[in-house]
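Feature request, filed as a ticket because there's no other form

It would be nice if the structure record came with a short human-readable summary line next to the tokens. Right now we just get the raw output. Example of a typical job, pasted below so the devs can see what we mean:
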Amino acid sequence: MAATQKASPAPIRPGGLVRPGLMAPQLPTVELDPRTGYDFLTSLCGDCGELEDLLPEDRRWMEDAHAALAAEVGGDASTQTCIAFVEELGRMLVGHPTIKSAHDVVDAIDAMSDGELLETMVQELLEDPDFGGLTRRAIDGDAEAYGELQAKLASHKGHSVVAGPIAELAPAARRVVHAWLPRYETVEARVGRILERDVAARRLEDATRDPVGFVEQTTNGIRIVPEQRIRRIVLAPSYFGRPYNSLSKIGDVQLVCYPVADSALGAADRLAPPAATVRLYRALGDASRLRILRLLAERDRYLTEIANEVELSKPTVKHHLALLRAAGLVTVTDQGNMTYYSLRRDRAEEAGIELRAYLAH
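Raw output as currently delivered:
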């Protein structure tokens, strides 16, 4: 009987090599940062939030304070433009933990040259591949580039964004923050307590265990896909920015100013409906927004797809999506240079039987 020949062992193959730069990115660390300096800048930007999402006394304060500010500093084009960009100065706080209060923010602004201040205000444009070159030439004094930048921004946003001489933006910003400081300081201590309550109610261990999920839950629908360049995510609670999120990238940091939860407000009126409930049904009270939800019930979509399907301009669709996000009905996912939108089915389920039936067909 012939002996059974033992099979040769399979050759050992080396593991696959990963080209440098293509490894799976490490999950970013997440931290909560309740400094009032962020909200000082947000409150100055009059259209960064919704009055209906503030407590009644703060709605009155906001309207009165902005009316007094306009009377003091005037309403020229440079002043209005600088107010639109002043929230970008929150970038300063990320790298400077000693800048805490509104007064600290103003001191830091005063320590900057006009050139440094202007670059900080338009940093997002400088880093944008579509606007960076134009913005650089504009702030270097190229009048033709500035005119082209104005036109491109107006087309992109659907309204005029920058007006007046660009060299006037930094001096105008200094005037405005100095005029706004004493007004904001009258509410700063109470706002600080709201921000602290919001942070205290969140489970920081969840940020360590599932940072992406924690960010999505905290922001009510912002999903940040890990990427190589983002090492930290700073979540700064905002009262005056409610119900919207504001995102900025600063080096390897993703800053998100997110709206504080209703529970952090400490409202005394037991009959007042939760703002989240009001936002939900307000968002559903529009035919175009319902059509957008119907599209997202089929699959995730990009902005251009949605705009083409509902036959509306991109700025109009972005406005509708912002309201749907504020209501918790839509998740926005940033992945590299791509952004797409998804239906938050759990929130849609909370809205009732009729909405579920509509989205199912």
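Something like this underneath would help us a lot:
The beta strands are 29-32, 222-224, 232-238, 246-250, 253-259, 301-302, 330-335, 338-343.
Residues 77 and 163 are 5 Å apart (CA to CA).
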